[in-house]
Amino acid sequence: MSNSIRWNGVSNAERIFTDGVELQTSYAFWMDPWHLKFSRSADLPGHVTLNIDYNYLLHLHTFPFQTQPNSYQVGEGREGTPYQRARADLTYDQGPFSVTWTVRYVGKSADFVKDPGLQVYAEDAIAPAYFAPVFYNDLIVHYRVPTRWNGKADLFIGADDLFNVLPPPNAITGNIAGPDGSALYDLGLYVFAGARVRY
What we know:
The protein has no helices and 11 strands. It is mostly beta strands. It has one domain.
């Protein structure tokens, strides 16, 4: 007499390979905007901080079957995963006020499948085949309200995509079939305001 167990199920054996380069830098100094004076010490009323983050995606390959290393899906350079991305934040802080200007960069990307082994690439049938690079500008102003208790109160107003740069056509698909630009491209100008209180 023998007993045997048969298991019917799905095994997720995918493998993802990715690599790239990321560069980050920061620089800060003090300034007096009314007299155009700059200093590296805290002897001026305003403080300026510049942060820059740059990413270059070299590879993003998805292998559906680990036993077929030559069959993979190419993700780099497509609308959800462009080769280049960057962000720069410039903040001026003085007294209870602070202003931050942000510039976001989304590099050129393809609107077609780039997987190896395809006899006909969609690039031949889609026009335009590539999404052009996009720059977004954001602005936010904070005012820290003086309080009589140990908490903090912050009033703010700002705008994302200040110049109303719309996303490229077909860039946002809801991730129906492959990469999607929902996390990268804005839908247009977005204005907001609010308050935060800590106590």
